[in-house]
Amino acid sequence: MASAILATLLIVGASYAPTESSFAALGVVVVLLAGLALGWGSLLGFPGKAALGVVLLIAGAGASALAIGTGSGPTMDWLAPCVAAGVLLAFLAQLLRGTGGAMRLEGTAIGATGVLIAVLGSGWVALDGLGHSTPVVVVAGISMVGAGLIGAIRWPDRIVAPLGWIVAVLLGGVSSVLFADVDLVPALVLGAVTGAVIVAFRAILVSEGGPADNRGAIAAGIVPVLVCGAMAWFVETLLVS
């Protein structure tokens, strides 16, 4: 959970960058994508880590770059094409490993899942490009950090999961008083959505025994933060703007 909290703080910090462009958010997301690319294969025990990491980085960075120019629209138009291209690259990467490569079929599924996660991270860049999104990013960040801190407690998941989600919702609602642009209901929804992502992924990690090495642990913390990018963008677009 430490890497998840650090990644969240970086996202929040980028939203305060003294510029009207989204390049600060883009830079932070690319750094997170690099961490995902380095550790995704290790997290899932996949042998073809290098090619898989390159695919994730290309798909995620491409989606984030496209989000700068198109993120102000009502839909994430760049999402589907980038996911499709990334899945195709993941499939080709497994073909190039040859018939002797281990876990080629599993590698395609692992790559496709990683591509989706990487592309969802572009939501943070698109959100930053709206020009008035700092309050939403901060509210989401507070909720995510709260859920992450609860997730760091070594209690049974049947206690941590609901407690982390409740804390995220409450922190989202409370933090709405800091910003006039974010009403109570959208803040509660934002806390509920982002908190659910954090505690759900924590539950998956616990059920699988946790990451096997440091690279996997870093990727494990980055995954829910990237996914929350798209969730925060949708809440902003549907309930706040």
UniProtKB/TrEMBL annotation:
Residue intervals passing through the bilayer: 24-43, 50-72, 78-96, 108-127, 133-153, 160-179, 185-205, 217-235
Keyword Transmembrane: yes
Alphabetized UniProt keyword annotations: Membrane, Transmembrane, Transmembrane helix
Zinc is among the record's keywords: no
Protein name per UniProt: Permease
